[in-house]
């Protein structure tokens, strides 16, 4: 089993690297770093190529990971809800739907607050909105490598 997981991990990394978007982002990042260090490396304002490469690469990785997490969460939610429905139909459990709905509402409010905090964090650290948005879009749309 560990060999299969390790193989899957390396397949996912190859998917990231084979994307032309990620390669372009890394190339921009490297060119921006080279230019920045050759020009004295002032920490006040990094070059646009560096910011665009970092933003696009960061957005791509976030989108790539997000897609995999959403897929896993959907599968897990389906299994849990199917199990609950089975237990409910067989009469093994009784659910107070009002309490369940209240817990779901509280969870959604909490999640919304955390997502707003995460968004503020990302907009502060990912320097360019356009490049980051493009990388995010391409990361979500990336497909696994076919072996």
Question: Could you please describe the fold and organization of this structure?
Answer:
By secondary structure, the protein is mostly helical. The protein has one domain (2-141). The chain has 5 helices and no strands. Helix 3 crosses helix 5. The chain starts with a helix and ends in a 6-residue tail after the last helix.
In a nutshell, what does this entry contain?
This protein is an all-alpha fold and 147 residues long. The chain has helices at 2-18, 20-38, 48-90, 97-125, 129-141.
Topology, pairings included?
Layout: H1 2-18, H2 20-38, H3 48-90, H4 97-125, H5 129-141
Helix pairs in contact: 2-3, 3-5
Core attributes:
about 150 residues, mainly alpha, 5 helices, about 0% strand
Portion in strands: under 5%
Structural class call reads mainly alpha
Count of individual domains: 1
Low-confidence stretches: none
- The strand count comes to 0
Quote the average pLDDT. 83
Helicity level, as a percent range?
Answer: over 70%
Shape: elongated
Cα end-to-end separation: 18 Å
Element pattern in H and E = HHHHH
Largest sheet: none
Round the Cα radius of gyration to an integer and report it: 21 Å
List the total number of helices.
Answer: 5
């Amino acid at each position: 089993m560990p060999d299969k997981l390790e193989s899957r991990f390396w397949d996912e990394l190859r998917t990231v690297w084979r994307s032309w978007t990620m390669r372009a982002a890394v190339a921009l990042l490297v060119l921006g770093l080279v230019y920045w260090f050759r020009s004295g490396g002032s920490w006040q304002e990094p070059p646009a190529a560096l910011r665009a490469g970092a933003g696009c690469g960061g957005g791509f990785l976030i989108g790539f990971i997000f897609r995999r997490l959403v897929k896993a969460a959907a599968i897990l939610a389906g299994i849990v809800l199917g199990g609950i429905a089975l237990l409910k139909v067989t009469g093994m459990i009784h659910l107070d739907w009002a309490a369940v709905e209240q817990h779901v509402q509280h969870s959604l409010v909490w999640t919304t607050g955390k997502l707003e905090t995460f968004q503020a964090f990302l907009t502060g650290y990912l320097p360019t909105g356009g490049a980051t948005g493009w990388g995010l879009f391409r990361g979500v749309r990336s497909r696994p490598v076919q072996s």
